[in-house]
Amino acid sequence: MKSSVLYIFFLFVIGCSSNKNIENKEVIYYGKTACLGKCPVLDIFIYKEGIVIYNGIKNVEKKGKHRFKISKKTFQEIKNEVAKIDFNTVYTEDLKRDLPKTIIKINGKKAVFQNPKKIKRVEELFNKLILKN
Predict the structure, then answer these.
(1) Contact 46/28 with Cβ under 8 angstroms?
(2) Domain annotation covers residue 86
(3) Is 115:100 a contact under the CB 8 Å cutoff?
(4) Do strands 102-106 and 41-47 pair parallel, antiparallel, or not at all (unpaired)?
């Protein structure tokens, strides 16, 4: 009995630590916030290994948490497009209450957009990623 409890505890610790390892290796975050209408609300985390955690929260076809892997080529393409964003510029100069925000983070830097035209290619890549998986 005692060894069974230790075994279960050991599995729990291993499971929790493997999730922490993935969380610590996050490279890119892409999120969409709510609006007063039916805007999609979602979070996407992409890790160095090409592991993607998608969380469809509201007004999306694919709801809930999903985990999948993308190719190195796809990962690099997304990373290259996100790297083109000037994270030193403030993109929320004309904030409007009813418009959703797109939040992009990479390596500790964050940019918030309400005008998707400024990040059109990045939006296309993430939408393609969601549809394929």
Answers:
(1) yes
(2) yes
(3) no
(4) unpaired
Full residue range of the structural domain in which residue 80 is found: 26-132
Query: What are the pLDDT tens digits along the chain (133 aa)?
Result: 544 433 344 334 334 444 445 455 769 999 999 999 999 999 999 998 999 999 999 999 999 999 999 999 999 999 999 999 988 876 656 677 788 999 999 988 999 888 878 899 999 999 999 988 8
User: Is residue 49 assigned to a domain?
Assistant: yes
Domain-embedded: residue 107: yes
Give how many domains the chain has, as a whole number: 1
Q: Exposure string (b/e) for 88-110, b if CB count within 10 Å is 16 or more?
A: eeebeeeeeeebbbbebbbeeee
Tell me the two tokens of residue 124: 């296309």
